[in-house]
Structure prediction request, 224 residues.
Amino acid sequence: MRPRRRVSGTALPLDRSDVDTDQIIPAQWLKRVERTGFGAGLFAAWRDDPAFVLNRPEHDGACILVAGPNFGTGSSREHAVWALEDYGFEAVVSPRFADIFRSNCTKVGLVPVQVDEATGERLLRAVEADPTLVVTVDVERRTLAAPAAGIQATFPLDDFTRHRLIEGLDDVDLTLRHGDAIDDYEGRRPGWLPSTAVVSAGTRDPQETTVRLSRPAARPPATG
Prediction:
């Protein structure tokens, strides 16, 4: 995933609370087998309304979504996060996030910015009033700022999540950091157990890496 040290740009105001993952990406889109292309289905039911905020040209190119409280409730589908990221959002601001949705965000590089309700409301109104308002999310400093609107706030982000966002580390990247230990463990496994072998070693691109599962040898007969 891409490193996220700082996100700065215009924002899109979604003045709705309790937005669940089915509203973010409807169930019919879950049939896709790829991880890309979900942006076309983002808020699909609402986008049928020409007046819906995503259809307004003044918010084209927005990279930060500002939403009401309890964003990302409902099912734990990762597709909701994929849809937001695929559409072009790099951060989401809300007074409250569903726990699983927030966790899914951090694993793909979408920054969840949780602020108090007063700050969230002020930011929503400021972006509605001025679509050109520049909002900056600083992951290193854990701050949110919209200087032209007089808004400055901090947001919670534990050290580990901050580190993985700044370094651009998804779960696969974190696992590969222990590659030597994994190789050592695999080298000491009994021959009758399944083992994995990376065919194109040295690459971190999952599309360029093939894993071959070997057929286990016959288990040695029990003794005694």
About this structure: Strands lie at 6-9, 11-14, 64-67, 91-94, 111-114, 135-138, 143-146, 151-154, 196-198, 211-213. Residues 29 and 162 are 31 Å apart (CA to CA). The chain has a mean pLDDT of 88.
